Amino acid sequence: MLTKGLTTVGLLLVSNVFMTLAWYAHLKLQSAKLISSWPLYTVILFSWGIALFEYSFMVPANRIGFVGNGGPFTLVQLKIIQEVITLFVFTVFSLVAFQNQALGWNHLAAFACMVGAVFFVFIK
User: Transmembrane segments in this chain: where (predicted)?
Assistant: First the structure.
């Protein structure tokens, strides 16, 4: 069970890196003047291309981790884990790629609440 759990979390982490890039990398590329002349439909297709990799990791993560398939996590647990990973990956991405974005106490408090959600969803 531990192996399936760690595999699931690892796949969710990789998946969320791709999803964060699909959602937000075009903003960084636009601000760097690399794709500022691209029409919106091209940016959407670019993002969909990245999101394909996200699905290539997210779907197996959910299949491996779901208790109905012999994994250790319920559907709600999988979703809460995914949301916390998303928040973590987004925070790292925004601090690295958009260095003018500040991380305030309220952001840390919100992150603590999400970690609390993980705690509560695992209570039997």
Answer: 6-26, 38-60, 80-98, 105-123
